[in-house]
Amino acid sequence: MSTPLLEVSGLQAGYGDVTVLRGIDLTVDRGQMVALIGANGAGKTTLLRSLSGLVRATGGQARLDGVALQGLAPHRIVEAGFVQSPEGKQLFTDMSVQENLMVGAHNARARALRQQTLAEVFDIFPILAERRSQRAGTLSGGQQQMVAVGRALMAKPQLLALDEPSLGLAPIMADRLFESIGRIRALGISVLVIEQNVFKVLQMADRGYVMENGVIEMSGTGSELLRNERLRSSYLGL
Ligand code: ATP
C-alpha cells in the first residue's frame, strides 16, 4: 500500500498556554477529498493553521509526501505542496483578478509553470477568465472566493486546504464552488476542506473527520457518516 499523502499523528497545538489540538490523527490519501467538520471552536481552523506553519505544533507529527512539516516556515510548507486558501479571502482588492492569481505563483516550482497553471485555473473557473482584468474588489463574494481558491492553486499544491469556502455565499454560488472542487480533484489535487455545509460536503468527500474539543471524535467515508445517527442529529438536525 502506498503511504498517505498527508499523515497527521498525535498533533498538538494551541495559543500560549491554551491547548486547542489535543492529539489529532488524520490521513489524506492521494487524490482524495477529505472533509473536516465540527462545531465552532472545535479547533478545525487551528488544525489547518498548524499544518500551514502559522501556529506552532507542540507535539505530534505531520508529514506531507514523507516530508516532516513541523518546524518548517510557512513558505517551505507551500513549496512542499500544502497550500491553504484562508478563511476570509484576503485578496488585493485594487489589483486585477489575474494579478491576484499570479501572487499565488511565487515559489520557484510554481513560477516556472504559471502560464499553464493560469490556464487550468481559468478552466476550473471560467468566469475568472472573463473577468481577468477586473479589479478583484468589484467582484461578487462568490467570485472573490473563486479568486482565493485559484490563487492557492497557482502555488501548485499537492494538497489544497480550504477553510469554509462556501461561507456567506448564496446557495447557487456555493453549488458552483462545490462543482469546482470536483474539477480540482479531477486534476489529481487532493483537497482537505473545513465546511459547515455538512450534507453537501459529505456527499462529495471520500472521507470525513468530525472534530470536537480538539480531538477527532468520529471518522468514516462520506456515506458512512451521512448514515451515522449521532452525526445526523448533531450536524444535520435529523
Ligand atoms: P470556527 O468554525 O469557529 O472557526 P474552529 O473549529 O475552526 O471554529 P478554531 O478557530 O480553531 O475553531 O478555534 C479553536 C479554539 O481556539 C477556540 O476556543 C478559539 O477561541 C481559540 N483560538 C482561536 N484562535 C485563537 C488565537 N489567535 N488566540 C487565542 N485563542 C484562539
Entry summary:
The protein is α/β, with parallel strands linked by helices and 238 residues long.
Describe this structure in words.
Helix 3 runs parallel beside helix 7. The longest helix is centred in the last third of the chain and has 16 residues, at 171-186. The protein has helices at residues 44-51, 74-80, 97-103, 108-112, 114-124, 126-130, 141-154, 171-186, 198-204, 222-227, 229-235; strands spanning 6-15, 18-28, 33-37, 57-64, 67-68, 82-85, 159-163, 190-194, 207-212, 215-221. Helix 8 links the parallel strand 7 (159-163) and strand 8 (190-194). The chain is of the alpha/beta class and 238 residues long. The model has no long low-confidence stretch (mean pLDDT 93). Residues 15, 18, 20, 38, 40-46 line the site of adenosine-5'-triphosphate. Adenosine-5'-triphosphate binds at residues 15, 18, 20, 38, 40-46. It comes from Aquincola tertiaricarbonis. Pfam families: ABC_tran. GO terms for molecular function: ATP binding. Residues 6-238 form the ABC transporter domain.
Ends apart, CA distance between termini:
37 Å
Give me the secondary-structure category. Answer: alpha/beta
For the biggest β-sheet, the strand order reads 6-7-8-3-9-10
Radius of gyration: 17 Å
Largest sheet geometry: 6 strands, mixed
Protein name: ABC transporter ATP-binding protein
Family: Belongs to the ABC transporter superfamily.
Keywords: Amino-acid transport, ATP-binding, Cell membrane, Membrane, Nucleotide-binding, Transport
GO molecular function: ATP binding
